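Continuing the series of single-chain predictions for the mutant panel. This is the parent chain; the variants come on the following pages.
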Amino acid sequence: MTLWFFMGTAGELIKVYPLLRLAEESGLSWCAVHSGQSGINYWKQWDDFRLPRKRSFSTGVSKEDLTSPRSAMKWFFQSVMVSKKHLIESLRIEPPHFAKDLFFVHGDTLSTLLGATYAQRLGMRLIHVEAGLRSRDLFQPFPEEINRRLTSEMAHWHMAPDETAKYNLLKAGFEDNIINTRGNTLLDTIRRVLTDSEPEGFQKPSGQYAVANLHRHENLSSEKRWKRLMEAVFIAQKKCPVYFSMHAPVEAKLNADIESRQKLLEAGVQLMPRMKFTHFIRLLNGAQFVLSDGGSNQEECFYLGKPCLILRETTERVEGLGKNAVLSGFNIKTIRKFIENPEAFKKPSVDLSVQPCNIIFESLGLIPKVQKIQTGLV
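Parent structure:
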C-alpha cells in the first residue's frame, strides 16, 4: 500500500509536511503529487524542508504561481479534464494495486477539490485532512467554502481538527470515519521546525516589530477592502516597524498599484518577498503582533500565543478567537483599538504534546498507538 499526498500550494505543503516526515520515519511507502497550482513557491518550500524531489510527481499544467482568480480557474478547468489514463501514467501507478492505496488531500484550495476528484477517478480511498471547517456562507470565502463542502462529499475519512469541525460534519449528515485530531497538523509542523536548528540565512529583526501577511483574493479584488488593509498597515507602522511578507497575489497587486507601494515604502514598511516557512515562523514568533487575512496565520498565532488582528469580515476558524485573535470585520475602531494595545491579547503558547499527525495515522491503522512526545515552545 502506498500513501499519496496531493498538494498544490506552499501552504498545503507546510501542513502536510509532518505527515510526510512521519510516513518516512514509520517506514511507510509514500509519494507526493504536485497539482501545478503553485509552480514556484511550492518547490521553494519543498526544498526548504529538504524533501527529496524524487519522491514527488506532478500532474499539473502550470509552472508559475497563479496570481489571479482568472488564471486559477483556467488552470483548474484544464487540470480537472485530465484523464484516468494520464493520471496512471503520470503517477506511474500499477493498476492492480492502487485501489488499496490511500489518497490524502488537505484543506480547501482548488487543489484540494482537484485531488478529491482524481482520487475518485482512480478509485482510491480519500482522506481529507483539516476537514469540517465551515463559514455558514456558501460564497464566503469563495471558492474555499465550496471546495471544502464538495471534498467532504467524496471523502472516506474526515480528519477534523477540533470538536467544532467534527460537529459541522455530523450536522451536515456525515456519520462515519470522522476523527477529531485535537489540533491541526500545522501544530506538528511548528514543533518540528522550531525545535530544529535555526536555518541558515535567518536574521531576526532587532527590537519590537509587527508582521503583516495579507493576500486573499477577496480582499485584493475589492478596492474598499484593499484601502482598509493599507490603512491598517500604516497605523501599525506608526507603532513599530512592520515587515510585510508578500505572497505572489499581493506582490502583483502592489506592482499594479504603484501609489500604494510608494506610500508603504515612504512610511518605512519593509516589503519582503514571500519567505520560506522555516524563516517565516521564526519571524512570526518574535513579532509583537500580526496583521493577517489568512486562516493559517490565525492558527500559527494561536499556537504561539501571538496577538493577531484578522483583517476579514468572517472566519471559518475558531482558533484564538476571544483570546489572542481579534476579528476586525474591517471596522476601523476595532483595528485601532487592537494596534494601540496588542499586549492585551498576548497569551502563553499552547501545549504541543498533542500530535495530530500521529492521531491521523493511528486512526487509519498505519502505525500503532505510541506515547506522545511531551514538548512545548519557549
